[in-house]
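#lab-general

N.A. 3:47 PM
ok so I finally got the sequence cleaned up, no stray characters, all 142 residues accounted for. can someone with queue access submit it? mine expired

B.Y. 3:52 PM
send it over

N.A. 3:53 PM
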Amino acid sequence: MRGLLWLFLLYPVAEIVSLIALTDKFGGGAVILWLIASALLGLALIRNQKLGMLLSAGALLRSGGEVSLYSLLWPVRTLLAGVLLIIPGPISDVLALLLLLPFKGPSVRMPPRAARPAEPGDVIDGEFRRVDEPVDPQRRLH
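B.Y. 4:20 PM
back already:
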C-alpha cells in the first residue's frame, strides 16, 4: 500500500522533471506544440471509442467460437491510452503508446450460442389466442 502511495506521489514529480528536461533540450515552443498535439490525439481516441467499440466487443461475444482476450480488452486499452495522452508529460505518452501496440493475447474458447444447452430460464411456456378487433371501414386509410 505504501508503494502505491509513493508511486502516486512520485509520478507527477517525474512528469514535471521530464518536461523541464525536454524543454531545456528542445525549447519551450516545441514541447508545448507536442503537448497540444498529444492531448488532441487523446481526445480523438476517446471520442472515437464511445459505444462502437463496446458494441463490437458484444458482437464478438455473441458470435461464439474463438475470441482472443486481446480483442476483448482493446476498447479498454484504447480508452486508457486516450486518457494517458491527455495527461501532459512524456512518461504518460510512452505508456499510452505501449498500450496501443498490437500485442496478441491468448485465445479464449467460447461455445457457440446455439450449441449451449438450454437453461431452465431460457424457455417461456404459455398459451396464446389471436384476437382481431373489427375495424370500421370509415377509419381505414385508402
